[in-house]
């Protein structure tokens, strides 16, 4: 049986496996699953990648200002720390503005704790995340080739 709490990102640099955490952020996990199932993330670039901080994706425009057609999410801030491998939702200065964009932490980013919604953790492929082209935006952005939920590891 497939694990429906696993997100697989096939990227231009390789495969990344994320354990989803519906216990921490059920609404955000449901959104990620819905968008992945719709193919929303397929072909989307990592548009903001800051060395020793994080890699951000989820905006099909590649500008950092886009999102899905679904309504913004209510914040589900939790006590899970922003450390290496943490997956968290990006948002504007308004707490309830997360939609489709998310980031993966390269390193400790505890200053984000309880201000952004953590919804998962990379369990395989952090070495792949480390190699994503850096920049805001990167000169040659890497992309999510395909995102899927519930595939066997």
From TrEMBL:
Membrane-crossing residue ranges in chain numbering: none
Matching PROSITE patterns: CSA_PPIASE_1, CSA_PPIASE_2
GO molecular function: peptidyl-prolyl cis-trans isomerase activity
Disordered: annotated span: 133-153
Substrates-to-products reaction catalysed: [protein]-peptidylproline (omega=180) = [protein]-peptidylproline (omega=0)
Alphabetically ordered keywords of this record: Isomerase, Rotamase
InterPro entries on file: Cyclophilin-like_dom_sf, Cyclophilin-type_PPIase, Cyclophilin-type_PPIase_CS, Cyclophilin-type_PPIase_dom, Cyclophilin_A-like
GO terms under biological process: protein folding
Biased composition (Basic and acidic residues): 136-145
PANTHER family reported in the protein's UniProt record: PEPTIDYL-PROLYL CIS-TRANS ISOMERASE-RELATED, PEPTIDYLPROLYL ISOMERASE DOMAIN AND WD REPEAT-CONTAINING PROTEIN 1
Family as reported in the entry's similarity comment: Belongs to the cyclophilin-type PPIase family.
Function: PPIases accelerate the folding of proteins. It catalyzes the cis-trans isomerization of proline imidic peptide bonds in oligopeptides.
Name recorded for this polypeptide: Peptidyl-prolyl cis-trans isomerase
